[in-house]
Write a structure and sequence with these properties.
This protein is an alpha/beta fold. 28% of the residues lie in helices and 18% in strands. The strands form 4 sheets. A 5-stranded parallel sheet has the order 3-2-1-4-5, sandwiched between helices. The protein binds S-adenosylmethionine (SAM).
């Protein structure tokens, strides 16, 4: 005897090219359609109206839309149906037609009348997780979330049984807060045998690695300073050739002043495949963590990221400081703490106003984050007075003066802190335009 409480039989439908009919173009359709489209289904939507997102999928040619109410016969030749309109009579009629035609049918308004249920699904690295709990969709979603999160961050052990792709992953680890690495970066880290890590980046994540993982501190590889990059390249090559899964964990993004391409080229010369995982660069994220947007409507229409590792008058400099001084937008300087005095003087000499606001953000996104405010005219002195040390990002431009209201609201709500911070740490500066003493954003 069939009984209503029998568990659903799980199955993976291969819908590529198969006709799927969706009745109703509201929120339910909006949530379900992307997966049907990804599965390659030939989707027909029958509905007098649709949400803007559903309409955008129609415009993009991902599905066909019959802009009308359900009519008997709509489920002819369908392999699968999703009935989710706001009209109960139409839902019941479509569901009855599905039954008659033996088309598996999901109903958003009546799970008991449905012949199929949609599991809570998620994906991570080629694995589809699908969870059914009968009548408790929130529990399904919670179990799905826990499994997917575990797969993504590697806390749920699920080793690949097929041969692992050999080679080295150049992983951008973000600016330092361990939550600001990408999901892919974190997963590769969890699967690594060897991790070659920089001084900058999410070093807290190294504590989470298993005891079998060899962690090599790139800053301590024994060779002279000039040889350091060759030594790092050699270590990557050596471990990759030994068949190890190697992660080169770098601060920020590997290709933003990170010498990532040099490492990729060294590996390519040895025939070792490289995977590059982009990261959140400090150039954007560190100002943001201190409450500075690098662009703002009506204030800055461009931002330029510049290395300050050599002074403007250094013959090795590739930067046209005179041209930069003519720009009105935001300048973001990395590696510039030691030379900010001469850089600021060059910008002022070439025409950038001396009262241009400047924010210096040290150790952004970490618990030690601090922000010092200055102007282009006095930033060299302020950095020295305040003892600012690398790593710091220096933001120059009118965007530095916006965001005060948001910082005030965050402080009132008590939400400032690394990750949600808006000027956390010590603010020892004056925010131009706020009067003597400025706004303490700490
Ligand atoms: C060699 S560059 C690497 C940049 C990195 N690839 C990126 O995309 O952020 C190092 C410079 O990045 C900046 N930097 C990186 N992380 C930082 C952080 N958490 N706080 C402030 N500055 C940071 C500093 O200017 C530092 O001197």
């Amino acid at each position: 005897m069939p009984h209503a409480d029998a568990p659903a039989y799980p199955v993976g439908l291969r819908l590529a090219g198969k006709r799927v009919v969706v009745i109703g173009g509201g929120q339910v359709a909006q949530r379900r359609l992307p997966a049907l489209v990804s599965a390659g289904a030939d989707v027909v939507l029958v509905s007098p109206s649709a949400t803007a997102s559903v309409e955008a999928m129609v415009t993009a040619g991902e599905l066909r839309w019959e802009r009308r109410k359900y009519r008997p016969g709509d489920l002819a030749d369908a392999w699968y149906a999703l009935v989710a309109s706001t009209d109960p009579a139409a839902n019941a009629a479509a569901s009855a037609e599905a039954e008659e035609r033996r088309v598996w049918c999901v109903r958003s308004d009546d799970a008991d009348a449905a012949t199929a249920w949609t599991p809570a699904t998620g994906r991570s690295d080629g694995v589809t997780v699908a969870v059914l709990t009968g009548h408790d969709p929130r529990r399904s979603a919670a179990v799905r979330d826990a499994v997917v999160a575990g797969l993504r961050d590697g806390t749920l052990g699920a080793p690949h049984h097929r041969a692992r792709a050999a080679g080295v992953a150049l992983v951008g680890g973000g600016p330092g807060d361990p939550d600001l690495i990408t999901v892919r970066g974190r997963r590769l880290l969890a699967e690594a045998d060897v991790v070659v890590a920089d001084r900058l980046g999410p070093r807290d994540l190294l504590d989470e690695l298993g005891p079998h993982v060899e962690v090599i501190d790139a800053a301590k590889i024994p060779y002279g300073r000039a040889m350091a990059q060759e030594a790092i390249n050699a270590a990557l090559v050596e471990h990759a050739k030994a068949g190890k899964a190697v992660v080169r964990l770098k601060g920020g993004d590997p290709y933003v002043f990170g010498r990532g391409m040099e490492e990729a080229e060294a590996l390519a010369r040895e025939g070792i495949p490289v995977t590059v995982v982009p990261g959140i660069s400090s150039a954007i994220s560190v100002p943001a963590a201190a409450g500075v947007p690098v662009t703002h409507r009506g204030v800055a229409h461009e931002f330029t990221v510049v290395s300050g590792h050599v002074a403007p008058d250094d013959p090795r400099s590739l930067v046209d400081w005179a041209a930069l001084a003519k720009l009105r937008g935001t300048l973001v300087l990395l590696m510039a703490v030691e030379r900010i005095g001469s850089i600021a003087a060059a910008l002022v000499a070439e025409g950038r106003p001396a009262d241009t606001p400047v924010a210096v953000v040290q150790e952004g996104t970490t618990a030690a984050q601090r922000r010092v405010d200055a102007t282009l005219g006095d930033v060299g002195r302020r950095v020295a007075e305040e003892g600012v040390r690398p790593p710091a990002v220096i933001v120059i431009g009118d965007v530095v003066a916006v965001g005060g209201a948001v910082a005030d609201a965050a402080r009132a709500a008590g939400t400032s802190g690394p990750g949600t911070s808006l000027g956390t740490g010590t603010d020892t500066g004056t925010v131009p335009g706020t009067g003597p003493g400025g706004v303490a954003r700490g």
